[in-house]
Amino acid sequence: MEQWLKKLRKGYGKKLVSLHFWNAWIVVILAVTGLMLVGGFWREILGIGRVWLKWLHIIVGLAMLAPVVYYLILASKHWKQLRNKPWQKVNTIIVLVLLVGWLISGLVLWQFKLVGPKWSNAALLTHDLLTWLGLPYIIYHSITRTKWLKDSTRRTVSATTPTKDIHGTADSLDTSGENTAAAISTPSSNRTTATKSPDQPQKPEPVYTRRAFIRSAVGVGLAVTLGPTFVSWVGRNLSIDNSIDSMLENDPNRMSPLPQPAAASSPPIGGGAEGHFRVYTVTPIPSFSNENWSFRIDGLVERAQVWNWEQFVKLARTVQVSDFHCVTGWSVYKNTWEGIPLKHLLTQAGVKPGAHSVKFYSGDGVYTDAITMDQAQMDDIMVAVMHDGKPIPADLGGPVRLVIPQMYAYKSVKWLNRIELIASEHIGYWEERGYDKDAWLTGAAQLLPNISS
Ligand SMILES: Nc1nc2c(c(=O)[nH]1)N[C@H]1C(S)=C(S)[C@@H](COP(=O)(O)O)O[C@H]1N2
Ligand SMILES: [Mo]
User: Fold this and answer.
1) Based on the domain organization, do 234 and 251 belong to the same domain?
2) SS3 letters for 388-402?
3) Number of structural domains, the chain?
4) Cα angle for residues 144, 145, 146 (degrees, 5° grid)
5) Ligand 1 centroid to 396 CA: how many Å?
6) Which ligand is closest to the CA of 40, given by its number?
């Protein structure tokens, strides 16, 4: 063990340089893939690519453990070199906190089923926060370093392995680029040339690889990912209030009459939803009016039916309070949904014996999902028309969306406009792209919570 550690730590200056290099690449890949995963923009474009991207992000994220552990092995020696460089110490600590924080919260997000929504929520918040604080910091760090690196005489570390490390300075790694006083006192160019054989180039080679790396990686990374994500993020934040109220104000749907809330909906018996919906869609957001909207139930039913909006808003509705959980870690708690229980629609239509699954279609023409006939017996599955006493805005799937509280929200089809009973199973949009067919929430009772009318 001792021997092994000694061996690992040998020539540690060179090792730290390559460690820094590899770690930088890992962070760039994670930033690019992570920003693409979080951006609603890319949801529309990537399709199945999103699932591969997610795996790439997870695998590279796990791989980050290697440089972190490796650094910790070298840390004691590095720390001594940073004696008089408080800013580099601070920088090192910041970067370590970021990496370890991302790693742990990432692990929790990856294992969302194991840990359940509460932990996923906390992990997502941590992951996002570290990203929005850490990424600009790291970009800044890279850019200031690039400038500093242009002057090779100010480098404090050379990638060449010194023959003998007497002063303990040849191996020191300046990781901040801000504290250069110590570096200048022992010009590294002298040291570098001194330890190199005469036929080798004069300038230390890593300056070029690092510069080229940082330029291209940061440039491409920022343009490709931060670009669209940042633009849409700014866009969202400029419309200051992105609450449901403002979605409703700008609602492109033109349904009339508007549904009138039941007593239990207004004020909402749940007391009002807690949390924010992230607007997810794999298509442009569709909009509807009485002219182009209808709702049908067909397939293996005794009485297939089509409603127009005027007829549909007259159907008897019930009210329920339920939580809403996305597999990506966010939740919205205590939603007061008002709508028609799926069970009522099925009873009314009359299920034929051969029916195996209930297939749900979105008015976006692309998104579908399904549950089995058995699952469809749950009392709390709702064809929702109102949320917290107000119509559901187009952004959140209005005028009518499905709500299956005990399953992850990818089952809750937005812009629902058709229910078909089919003889076989159906693989939904995200299931076809790698999501689990089993969308049960951890600990789902798989039966009936509070329903009132
Ligand atoms: N038509 C349609 N329905 C959909 C989706 C979608 O992309 N299109 N995304 C699903 C996913 S993964 C989630 S988490 C929720 C998000 O609902 P929200 O956009 O109202 O927050 O809708 C689900 N239903
Ligand atoms: Mo989701």
Assistant:
1) no
2) CCEECCHHHCCCCEE
3) 2
4) 95
5) 8
6) 1
448 with 322, same domain? yes
State the virtual CA torsion across 277, 279, 285, 290 in degrees, nearest 10. Answer: 0
Q: Is 280 close to ligand 1, i.e. is its CB under 6 Å away? A: yes
Mean pLDDT, the chain, rounded, equals 82
Res. 189 pLDDT band, cuts 50 70 90: very low
User: At residue 203, does pLDDT exceed 80?
Assistant: no
For ligand 1, mutation pick of 322, 414, 416, 435 (most atoms within 8 Å of CB): 414
User: How far away, in angstroms, is 408 Cα from ligand 2 center?
Assistant: 7
The values of phi and psi at residue 94, to 5°, are: -55, -50
**Residue 70: what are its φ and ψ, rounded to 5°?**
-60, -45
pTM of the model: 0.77
- What's the pLDDT score for residue 117? 87
In terms of domains, do 389 and 291 share one?
Answer: yes
Percent of the chain as helix, strand, coil, to the nearest 5: 50, 15, 40
Surrounding residues of ion ligand 2, Cβ less than 5 A:
326, 409-410
Domain check: are 202 and 249 in the same one?
no
* Host domain of residue 160: 2-238
CA of residue 414 to ligand 1 center, whole Å: 6
Do 208 and 314 sit in the same domain of this protein?
no
Candidates 251, 276, 280, 281: which one to mutate for ligand 1, based on the most atoms within 8 Å of Cβ?
280
Residues 203, 292 share a domain? no
Dump pLDDT digits (tens) for 263-300: 999 999 999 998 889 899 999 999 999 999 999 999 99
Q: Provide the pLDDT confidence category of residue 175 given band limits of 50, 70 and 90.
A: very low
Alpha-carbon span 313 to 329, nearest angstrom: 33
Residues 149 and 21 in one domain: yes
The domain boundary, picked from 238, 269, 292, lies at 238
Give yes or no for a contact between 410 and 327, defined as CB atoms under 8 angstroms apart.
yes
Contact 389, 268 (CB under 8 A): yes
Q: How far apart are CA 332 and CA 275, in angstroms?
A: 5
Shared domain check, 156 and 57: yes
pLDDT higher than threshold 80 for residue 240? no
Q: Can you tell me which atom of ligand 1 is nearest the CA of 362?
A: 1
CATH code (residue 426) = 3.90.420.10
